[in-house]
């Protein structure tokens, strides 16, 4: 029987890595999201510029997700070998497939939430590992969705629990920081508040997907414990070699 994901242990691991590696994660988030924050300040009430802000934010989120997956992969041996610039640049080759997958997942999840809510939450859960799969295994966009579902299978409720906890934490933090920024000044305050909020919270969201991926791969294919002990900051379980991987059932 497949070992079950340790929900509490996974959350602990996310915050443990966040606290240990914020010196890399926060600067990377600031660099990637800085153009979005600047454009948001300039946009004001312009619908065209606000549309550009949304597009640029999607690109930034895609690049940052790839960067964090590469960072977590790099730190499996317990050492951080990459600089901020190297981690960011290592994710650039994956922008196109990550964008494509992000758009498809966004459309599917958004439609599911609008129509019936439950299907949207279901898709959100089973597709939560698409980005790490694309970066680590390089199977292509469409196979990545099936691979993500196979990894989440048998641990759906536990994965959903981790996602919900992290969503609530990040959304509350973002709303508070943006509200503080808007209290200082309308457009400028909103842009600065957004930039501070996303710099602090984006690493948590990206770490969630990356750590869930490596942990579930270990549980299903590596025989590793569900949640590494955070005290020693041990490596994650072995990751399959680059290239398409057969879907687990």
Automatic annotation (TrEMBL):
Q: Where is the composition biased (Pro residues)?
A: 227-249
TM spans (from-to): 22-42, 48-72, 84-107, 113-136, 157-180, 192-214
Q: Which UniProt keywords apply?
A: Membrane, Transmembrane, Transmembrane helix
Record region (Disordered): 224-249
This chain's protein is named Glycerophosphoryl diester phosphodiesterase membrane domain-containing protein
């Amino acid at each position: 029987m497949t070992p079950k994901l340790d929900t509490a242990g996974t959350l602990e691991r996310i915050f443990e890595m966040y606290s240990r590696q914020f010196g890399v994660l926060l600067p990377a988030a600031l660099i990637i999201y800085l153009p979005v924050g600047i454009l948001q300040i300039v946009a004001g009430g312009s619908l065209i510029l606000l549309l550009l802000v949304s597009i640029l934010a999607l690109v930034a989120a895609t690049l940052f997700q790839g960067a964090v997956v590469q960072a977590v992969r790099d730190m499996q041996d317990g050492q951080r070998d990459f600089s901020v610039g190297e981690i960011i640049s290592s994710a650039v080759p994956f922008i196109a497939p990550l964008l494509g997958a992000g758009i498809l997942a966004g459309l599917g999840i958004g439609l599911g939430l609008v129509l019936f809510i439950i299907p949207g939450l279901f898709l959100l859960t089973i597709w939560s590992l698409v980005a790490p799969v694309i970066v680590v295994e390089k199977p292509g966009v469409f196979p990545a969705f099936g691979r993500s579902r196979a990894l989440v299978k048998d641990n759906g409720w536990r994965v959903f629990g981790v996602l919900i906890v992290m969503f609530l934490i990040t959304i509350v933090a973002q709303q508070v920081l943006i509200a503080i920024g808007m209290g200082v000044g309308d457009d400028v305050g909103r842009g600065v508040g957004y930039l501070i909020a996303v710099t602090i919270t984006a690493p948590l969201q990206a770490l969630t997907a990356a750590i869930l991926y490596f942990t579930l791969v270990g549980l299903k294919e590596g025989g590793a414990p569900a949640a590494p002990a955070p005290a020693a900051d041990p490596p994650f379980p072995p990751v399959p070699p680059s290239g398409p991987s057969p879907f687990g059932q």
